[in-house]
Amino acid sequence: MTWLWLTLTGVALAAGAVIPVILHRQPHPGRAAIAARSRYHLLGHHVEVTEPVTDPEAAALLRSARERWHSAGALLASARSRQDFELARRVAEEGLCDVTRAYALLGLPEPGQPW
């Protein structure tokens, strides 16, 4: 009879340890994480070190893009779900749009285009 109680206690302890882990597990973000990090790094390439710009509108757009780069980085640092990574990707893409508009004002090719 003692073996029955020991077995039931072991099963209860194992279930108590495993069930919370299973219930709180979220699916791996996978492609969303890769896309978000890719856009973040591309944006960083264009705004991390910028040369001085004489056009005030282009300078404002590049500052905005740099702020979005920082925001996307902060979002990526705390991202855990697919939705978190998608939000970071959208913020980075908004920054890339700002870079594209600034480059158009400066007569430079779009980000990702060959010189």
How would you describe what is shown here?
The mean pLDDT is 85. By secondary structure, this protein is mainly alpha-helical. Helix 2 packs antiparallel against helix 3. The protein is 77% helix and 0% strand. It is built from 4 helices and no strands. It has a domain at 29-106.
Summary?
The chain has 115 residues and is mainly α.
User: What fraction of residues sit in β-strands?
Assistant: under 5%
SSE topology string: HHHH
Overall average pLDDT: 85
* Alpha-carbon distance between the two ends: 81 Å
Annotation keywords:
rod-shaped; mainly alpha; 4 helices; about 120 residues; single chain
Strand and helix map with partners:
Blueprint: H1 2-24, H2 31-47, H3 56-78, H4 82-106
Helix pairs in contact: 2-3, 2-4, 3-4
